[in-house]
Amino acid sequence: MKKIKTEDAVGMILFHDITKIVPGGFKGRAFKKGHLIKQEDVQELLSLGKDHIYVWEDIEGFLHENDAAIRLKNLACGEGIVFGEIKEGKIDFIAEHDGLLKIDSEELLNLNMIDEIMMATLHDNTYVKKGEKLGGTRVIPLVIDEKKIIQAEDTIKNKIVRVVKVNPKKVGIVTTGNEVFYGRIKDAFGSVIREKAAEYGCEVLGQKILPDDLDKIKSAIMEFINEGAELIMCTGGMSVDPDDLTPSAIKATGAEIITYGSPVLPGAMFLLAYNGDIPIMGLPGCVMHSKRTVLDLVLPRVLSGERITKRDIAIYGQGGLCLNCEVCTFPHCSFGKY
């Protein structure tokens, strides 16, 4: 770039955006990069404190901040993302559709370890809505040595940011407990689960309410699977009392138990298993009365097609404490973030 006096800049091309700030009022772009400077612009530029102007001189081996940002976003961004207008060398990442935000944290760290480059995002596994801002990237200087961008392109092997569509599933609800089956108390799980499922467009095939009988619980799970259920949610009988049989019944279907217990509050007594490719969840009592629980963390990941592992659940220990805020802002809070 070349530095010249503003009075001598008429007819030249601005090298970078110029920002105007009015305290308590306006902050934004007064002149856009690439603007052809006219005589009438000179006085306003001077009023913005621009006694000198930088104009672009194409130098081999160096990139303008905008060109570098474009290469970074092409390198880092995968499916489900659209982009905002480049402003002052920064590009925002925007969700193209509703879905689960996936961040490759290691690759993001690798990119940010390269000098003069930055990228910031929301947390991994955040459920996002269409049009929501996910992150952004830019280079720090106005001009960067192209070798830094080439280093990034050689270093980053996987897309850092993606939005994966969440696919609705057919859900079967199995509720156990003599107290509910015999009408001593009213079931409170069914309506909550239907509401949670509806958030993602899932179809609830039905709810089977059963006594504390292992064989009947097992049979109900298998009946739903045979009816085409793609996700089973079991409620009741999930504590450690001797007559709580739901975990044993799930195991008796031949399902692989991934975890019985999670480092999440509310949600410590959560169970996750797979019967083939069909996920089976054992939901703790907190799902009935707490606004957000372990179910809100795991459900969108399951619906995205991800097969959850024991490690995936264990990682929730950091960030697994819900603060039960008076005004809930989930998913834009610390719950489930690590």
From TrEMBL:
Q: Name one GO cellular component term.
A: cytosol
KW Translocase (keyword) present: no
Which cofactors does this gene product need? Mg(2+)
Instruction: Quote the catalytic activity from the record.
Output: adenylyl-molybdopterin + molybdate = Mo-molybdopterin + AMP + H(+)
What SMART domains has UniProt attached to this entry? MoCF_biosynth (SM00852)
Q: Which CDD domains match?
A: MoeA_like
Q: Which InterPro entries match?
A: MoaB/Mog-like_dom_sf, MoaB/Mog_dom, MoeA-like
Which pathway, metabolic or otherwise, does it act in? Cofactor biosynthesis; molybdopterin biosynthesis
- As recorded in UniProt, its EC number(s) are 2.10.1.1
Domain named MoaB/Mog is located at 172-304
> GO terms for molecular function, please?
metal ion binding; molybdopterin molybdotransferase activity
> Which terms does the UniProt entry file under GO BP?
Mo-molybdopterin cofactor biosynthetic process
The entry's keywords: Magnesium, Metal-binding, Molybdenum, Molybdenum cofactor biosynthesis, Transferase
Is Transferase among this UniProt entry's keywords? yes
Q: What does this protein's UniProt record list under function? A: Catalyzes the insertion of molybdate into adenylated molybdopterin with the concomitant release of AMP.
Q: Which PANTHER family match?
A: MOLYBDOPTERIN BIOSYNTHESIS PROTEIN (PTHR10192), MOLYBDOPTERIN MOLYBDENUMTRANSFERASE (PTHR10192:SF28)
Q: Which family does it belong to?
A: Belongs to the MoeA family.
Q: What is this protein called?
A: Molybdopterin molybdenumtransferase
